[in-house]
Amino acid sequence: MRPVSRALAAIAATAIVVGACSGATSSPSASTDASPSGGAPSASAPAEQVTLTYFTFSAAPDHLADLDAIVQAFEQKNPNISIEVQTAAYTDYFTKLQTQVASGSAPDTFELNYENSVAYASSGALLDLTPLASADADFDPSVYYPKAYEVFQADGRQFGVPEQFSDVLLFYNKDLFDAADVDYPDASWTWEDERAAAEKLTDAANGVWGHFQPIQFFEFYKVLAQNGGSFFSADGTTSTFNDAKGVEAANWLIGKLDKTMPSDAFGPDQDSALFKSGKLAMWHTGIWLFPALADVPFAWDVSVEPGNVRKAHHFFANAVVASATTAHPNEAWAWLRFLTSSEEAVTVRVDASWELAAVADQSLFEPYLSQTPPDNRAAVFDALADIVTPPVIEQQSQMQDIVSQALEKARLGQLSVEEALNEAAAQVDALLQ
Amino acid sequence: MVELVRANSLAGTGTRKVRWGRLVSRTVIYAALTAGGLAMIFPFLWMLSTSFQSAGALLVPPPQLIPSPIELGNYAEIASAFPLWRFLANSLGVAAVATVLQVATSAMAGYAFARLRFRGRDALFLLYIATLMVPLQVTILPLFVEMKYLGLVDSYGALVLPAIASAFGTFLLRQAFLGLPRELEEAAFMDGAGHLTVFRRIVLPLAMPAIATLAVFSFVASWNSFLWPLIIVNSPDLMTLPVGLSNLQGRYATAWNLLMAGSTVAVVPILIVYVIGQKYVIRGVTLSGLKG
After folding, report:
1. pTM of the shown model
2. Which CATH superfamily is domain A51-165+316-360 in?
3. Number of residue pairs across A and B with CB atoms under 8 Å?
4. What ipTM describes this predicted complex?
């Protein structure tokens, strides 16, 4: 009993000390919590001091300082508005956002990826920006890359503005290509060219693999499009990804395994490790990895991805949106507009390699395009010529899981590709009912 | 030992068979326990190992368990580039306050349910215990709304408040109080003591092992809690360690060595509390049949 009471005493002592410290520091943060009430538009009362909250997943941990620079530039131009930034990791972001929105405490402005933006818009959680945009005399939608602006429209309403985009390219190790005497990939390549090159580049004795492409939902809908297939029927009521084109597309992903593509690279960052150690010749991955590959000890470059029937590239876009419940729609619009299209914000992003602002003016990207490697940075924009957005339904994450699990079963040989896709199609159809 | 010697001297075939059988079953049990132990400790070792690797070394296949060279910079970096101490202090403060308050409320409620007679007592107790079946994920939204009306969103108060009353703690201490001999209390009542005196002077000291168990459980639960602090707190100044650490995960790439260095720091206080209270945790599990 002695040691227990001693332990308890220690705990109690810590509680008192720490409690006292934290008590002292809690008061200032508690007082900043109160959000200003009253929905008076700033146009009629420009002097009113307004605090807007902005919740983001793309800033932490690497770009907090960059976001801060954008916020400061905005606050300088709009002295009556201050922006309060809240961050969360991508994996936890939507849990938190959902609770806040559902309880009526949504942040004034926040970030959404494409798939979620569709779901949030249809649930009525987002402010319709159309009237704000048309009332804003010096706003011109053509400042954005047109497709990027359009994807955030539904039922004639603009529910978000495009903040940034990424795409996926074919990364390749030039040294391995030179050593195997294979021509570098170019825009004319098809799957067949990639397969032939991968066979020549694979060198099992030295642990060198020809190519790597993840086998999951996001790759599947893209290769399906490359193969001329479509995920859903035209009216969106049934799955069509299990037709002959779909099977061929899934076979393209899975058929490479253990022949020219390593099957043990499916852990977190394993593909990255393989490419960085010079053991992977071609790699289908995102342009967000440019900075991570800046110092690798070999020459590398990128190319647009090979297609089959046609070309298709990912378009991962994030939008910034305003909550339908914000008390300050005008200020929110000003902030969203500044954050996505102002020269200051675009420049900060470009300089920090923080994805790419979705603006149309290519001259703003000059500093980005002139950086090497890769030499062929222009491929980032070339890829935009034929982008596909992911299929979106209400039960998005369930659908993604179903498709990814079917591909996993086919990858592990538990089911044939046809069986796996048929099973997944039946499950997805059930979701659509 | 004596038995062994006697068995040896007798040296009959029957007893030898018994001894062999025991040896084999012992070996199997120990082998299984060792395998289980290794499986349990491996993630910890992996975390520790990763926290001492450089970012570059992590990416070279195959993965190494023993880092070479040993990189101490991760700890320095996480302490300087990241408000580690602030998060640590928040976690400690919240866990300590929540633990003290939870033990206090659970002891009082447990005493009431164990010793006071009032109408509907058992029904009320059953209802209270039934709330153990409702997971946090279900109550989190109403809880958030409640905090909003109390004006506590994004405050230390909101981190502590939901933890101060615990059905599990009340149950654990009620069971412990029921196990105490009533005669002691009756003697005190004879001497003119009231409930408060009996509670403070007799019941609490006698139930110390159960109280220590609850203290360890509730400290660990508060320390590990992630979902609630994630949702209720927005300011970095108020974040607890698990929430702060989660912000180290990037969308596309994560500095695992830094994250694991932070996680190692996060595990140390728990280890200390556990080592101190180990005996009582095990007793608590056998007492209640529940794991905290």
Report:
1. 0.75
2. Periplasmic binding protein-like II (3.40.190.10)
3. 143
4. 0.72
